[in-house]
């Protein structure tokens, strides 16, 4: 069951979660997203909240509505999203993470970058 954080609106959290799935290639560019009704049922939230999340993704140019067909991932969405997320990570998250690593005395050699 999905747990929502009270710090952000649910629609934004859902949009962020759907964007993360898009970044992972699910669904692929040119493919449809699940319907509003299916997403509302899956996450047990109001369809209007789902619609607002999808609108946020549309406003970012990641998805498009095709009348009578549904909502589809736009070509280039994954790379556009990756670029925005990289920039956000490097400017916002990395400096904080780097400072925390320094405070904890963790060196680059101690970090494991592989899957093992």
TrEMBL record:
Gene3D superfamilies: 6.10.250.1220, Winged helix-like DNA-binding domain superfamily/Winged helix DNA-binding domain. This is GntR family transcriptional regulator. Residues 8-76 form the HTH gntR-type domain. SUPFAM superfamilies: Winged helix' DNA-binding domain. The keyword Transcription regulation applies. The keyword ATP-binding does not apply. Keywords: DNA-binding, Transcription, Transcription regulation.
């Amino acid at each position: 069951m999905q747990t929502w954080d009270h710090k952000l609106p649910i629609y934004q959290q859902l949009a962020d979660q759907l964007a993360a799935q898009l970044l992972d290639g699910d669904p692929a560019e040119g493919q449809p997203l699940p319907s509003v009704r299916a997403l509302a049922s899956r996450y047990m939230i109001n369809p209007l909240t789902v619609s607002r999340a999808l609108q946020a993704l549309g406003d970012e140019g990641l998805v498009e509505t095709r009348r009578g067909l549904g909502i589809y991932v736009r070509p280039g969405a994954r790379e556009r999203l990756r670029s925005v997320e990289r920039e956000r990570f490097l400017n916002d998250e990395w400096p904080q993470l780097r400072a925390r690593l320094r405070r904890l005395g963790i060196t680059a050699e101690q970090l494991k970058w592989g899957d093992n």
